[in-house]
Design brief:
Chain lengths: 180, 180
DNA sequence: ATTTATTTTTACCTTTGCTCAATAATTAAA
DNA sequence: TTTAATTATTGAGCAAAGGTAAAAATAAAT
């Protein structure tokens, strides 16, 4: 059985929404804060992180993307405003570029697209609720275990340093938590 | 100029999606965890909180609703599963009931509905990103200030006790933060 | 392969938000 | 209005997560 995201990817190809591809070296930025976002990135190879700079000028990770993921600065796309996130390649990463303009247009004109789009963003809302519940867990160990259970692949793909940041703790705390 | 939510409310009336109304006394539950959710609550009067029970059996607030808001257990509606949230009246609260079944049906069949629905849930995603950034702010004072700036009405409507919980801190810490 | 840089682990110390407790202030109930 | 119950404030002590620093382990670069 095909997932909504798989169906959506098939539609992206059929309707020629893929307008190019790009390769980023490790640490290169797909998008920087302040940039206007023209593309969704469909990751063919590599991995990416999304982070923002907080009030103390520190980087704060909010999302990771791996092979097969559609990755972008969502708020920027939805609100038509400059990105508040940085998207950065964690290793050499190849992406296919989906035109935001064409995507928005076809979501408005094509019934099939709009319905599947609804399913996809509704699912995104659900994932964000889970993320909120994770972040509201005070005990670092429980926070770690919750995320490990739901996203085990995260811990395969991403370095502990970045996971610790994502989990709102220091690398030292994560290291201790994993031992105990 | 009419907001998407206002337009949506107008459509709810025109298409007779309001199938009843209910009044809840202070502390009564609109929905309990485990319940199947049949309705969206359009709040006419009063205020409501959404919370879940965490691993330590404590209540954890995740959302508040006031007059005019559409309020429900979103994940339950989107995933067709029992609610993981409790929705509880914080004072005597009157709501109009929107049929989830009818809403889902009309979103699939009516172009106008589906397009405005897309706008509404895309906006919801953006709000959740902001919430995530709030929760990732480590310093309680900054966390308080961020939310106060973006949702000043929250501090009018809701008691400090519940706000503190929502902000991931104790009432004592919130009290001290407000003084300083 | 060797060097350089980065990440992870460990120990010790510091800070800060939480618990507990007592009081004051508000709100609800009789 | 008076009483009861809940909520908000303040202080003191403590536990736990974070900071610092140094060593060990990986990974990257030459």
């Amino acid at each position: 059985m095909m997932s909504d995201v798989d169906t959506f990817k098939k539609l992206l190809i059929e309707h020629q929404l893929i307008v190019g591809e790009r390769t980023f070296l490790k640490d290169e930025f797909l998008i920087k804060a302040g940039d206007v976002v023209y593309f969704l990135n469909w990751i063919e190879k590599g991995s990416v992180r999304a982070f923002f700079i907080n009030e103390k000028e520190e980087e704060q990770n909010v999302r990771f993307g791996y092979i097969g993921d559609l990755f972008t600065s969502v708020k920027s796309v939805f609100l038509n405003q400059p990105s508040d996130l940085y998207l950065q390649a964690l290793k050499k990463t190849k992406v296919h570029l989906i035109s935001v303009e064409k995507l928005k247009s076809i979501i408005q004109s094509n019934e099939v697209f709009s319905q599947i789009w609804i399913n996809i963003i509704q699912y995104l809302v659900c994932q964000q609720m889970d993320r909120e519940m994770d972040l509201l867990t005070n005990d670092p160990k429980l926070r770690y275990e919750r995320v490990l259970e739901r996203s085990p692949q995260l811990f395969q793909e991403i370095s502990s340093k970045h996971i610790a940041n994502y989990l709102r703790m220091t690398p030292e705390t994560l290291s201790r938590v994993r031992k105990s």
